[in-house]
Amino acid sequence: MDVISPQVFREFEKETGIKVRVSYMENNEELLAKFKISRGEGYDLITPSDFMVELLRKQNLLQKINTEKLSNFGNIDKRLLGHYFDSQNEYSVPSAWAPYGIGFNKKVIPSVVSWKNAFFQDSEIVEKWGSNYKICMPDDVGEATIIAASYLFGKVKDLTKEQLKEIEHLLIQQKKHVERYTISSLKYFLYSDIVPLVVTFSPAMKMVMEQSDEFDFVIPKEGSLVTIENLVIPADSKKTDLAHKLIDFILSKKAQLINFDDYGYNPSNKKVYGKIDKKFRNNKSFFPSDKMFKKLHVIPNEPLPEKLEKLWLAVKSS
User: Fold this and answer.
1) pLDDT tens digit string along 158-195?
2) Which fold has domain 99-225+297-316?
3) pLDDT tens digits for 198-236?
4) Strand partners, 180
5) What's the rounded Cα separation, in Å, for the pair 180 and 200?
6) Comparing C-alpha atoms, which of 89, 90, 41 is closest to residue 64?
7) Which residues pair with 226 in a beta bridge?
């Protein structure tokens, strides 16, 4: 899903007279592949996810950001700062974030929702629905693995070989109940009553819940994961002053509210929270408490991709 609305760039151009040329990439992996070849030549600001910041930083593809030039840096939600991918926030500035959880039809699923509903560890669900109970899961091995690890072990790093096999077994057992591995077409599956439950993140459920009160979103009590989207400056950028101006504008209350309204990612500027529709602002799964936030895991750069690919192949071919 997109993170920054085109309207934000139009507003920036209107206020500053600085023209912005935008190009889009399919995912973080495409971004890394391009930057390995070109070192980001021609780009002055990019928006990688948390785990990708670490990979870009370790390959010396980013330059440091001068936060003293950012008038809005002090308004950033402190919970988004100091994570493993850039512990001192020298190279990255959080622009948005989103927790993962369960979206569900309130008329079908009981009010107490946990990962058991998604992984079929609950005898009541199995007894009531059996093989007729279908769900949607993310089509991303990293997300699926970490969600399963969070449920099974309460951690997502330093997973042993045995724990990875347990995750693989859980996902294989789950597969017969998965209608579709997707995160982009959930409205169709939920509105059509094809599935009563989806494993997804808050931006996708915001789009569903804006149009219907039949659905809700919850972070299971066991914890989950969170994605933190960032603003970084490529190492070879020659327009760092302009990049800092755009970063500061993206962090402004006006831009952050536009992004939330258009794409659903939570603002990183905490001063925007009070301006958000109460339907979402007061939902503790869209804006979790500090206690719950501590149970949200940022996607790590482990296990190694080849291990994940092997695990996902076993799940998909089962």
Assistant:
1) 999 999 999 999 999 999 999 999 988 899 999 999 99
2) D-Maltodextrin-Binding Protein; domain 2 (3.40.190)
3) 999 999 999 999 999 999 999 998 899 999 999 999 999
4) 136
5) 12
6) 90
7) 99, 298
